[in-house]
Write a structure and sequence with these properties.
alpha/beta; Isopropylmalate Dehydrogenase; two-stranded antiparallel ribbon; globular; binds nicotinamide-adenine-dinucleotide
Length: 356
Amino acid sequence: MDYKLAVIPGDGIGPEIVDQAIKVLYRIGQKYGHRFEYNMLLAGGCAIDATGKPLPEETVEVCRKSDAVILGAVGGYKWDTLPGHLRPEMALLGLRGQLGLFANLRPAVIYDELKEACPLKPEIIGDSIDIMVVRELTGGIYFGERGHREGKLGQEAFDTECYSVYEVERIARTAFEIARKRRAKVTSVDKANVLESSRLWREVVIKVSKDYPDVVLEHMYVDNAAMQLVRRPGQFDVIVTGNMFGDILSDEASMITGSIGMLPSASLGENSFGLYEPIHGSAPDIAGQDKANPIATILSIAMMLKYSFNLDAEARNIEDAVNKVLKEGYRTGDIMSEGKTLVGTNLMGDLIAERI
Ligand code: NAD
């Protein structure tokens, strides 16, 4: 098959890590007979330097005409003092909004080889942790009505949590579909004991679940979910939740894996279109030094193959290659431990590509 990819390397370590992901994708193309066409695009600080805007229209247009988007990271010291609307990070919000990316997928996986990086005790980790947090990305309190007003106690500020049936149905379906590709369990997280919007959320999730009798559904209040993630993380497969709860829980789930350079993410829109990026930032402190871990970006490519192109075997091939390289003892600085072999960004990319 032929696939058109929009590639946004961005700033800092972005270009270095994206290069490694493309290296791996090239091998996948060779092995399985796919052709990937790359359109290199500007966004973030480099776009501000070149065009005066963090997200040029051309970038959005080309992304829209592509099958998927690969993003490195944006931002850096150089642009930190610019006014809010001109900051590189505005490119991320702009891309999510303009591309209609409503579902954020954040896997949290503990690799056998990196168990020592997990801050939890071995008996809590158990056999393995493999969680997928599916966060609603374009609704809820971050986008609800807000403002300042005069209240009973004087000046006050407010934000509003609001979810429509349509929004909940859409994210619930995404979660159930993903669960079918995994261990067929969905935990829907809400605060239905207190919030009206959560009661609607729960009602709609239950309704959608009728179309997925093969997937087990359970409900959990967000406070309990936060505790269970550090108490018995092995119980979770797919967690589906709203924007704010998902923001917090996805970071908590990431932390229990212990290594920011290992974590990919996907933001999905309609018709399996998606944007794929590592969860970390542009790491300006190590940019251009061949020190960045490219694995989060490489695993983001695996997510792209799986969720946008339905190429499960190819995705697994990448995940297996990453596992193999880790088993053989190769490590970038961020995941280095005694007795292992320290490698740079480039060599890590080569080693993974060679094992495809
Ligand atoms: P960061 O994720 O860039 O870095 C945090 C720490 O983790 C740093 O010490 C960094 O060296 C390290 N690190 C990050 N990724 C790594 C990797 N792949 N390999 C090895 N080490 C890695 O977060 P920050 O320092 O808070 O932010 C730096 C810049 O990135 C800021 O401008 C911020 O706004 C931006 N940012 C961008 C995104 C994005 O593009 N999605 C996300 C978060 C932050």
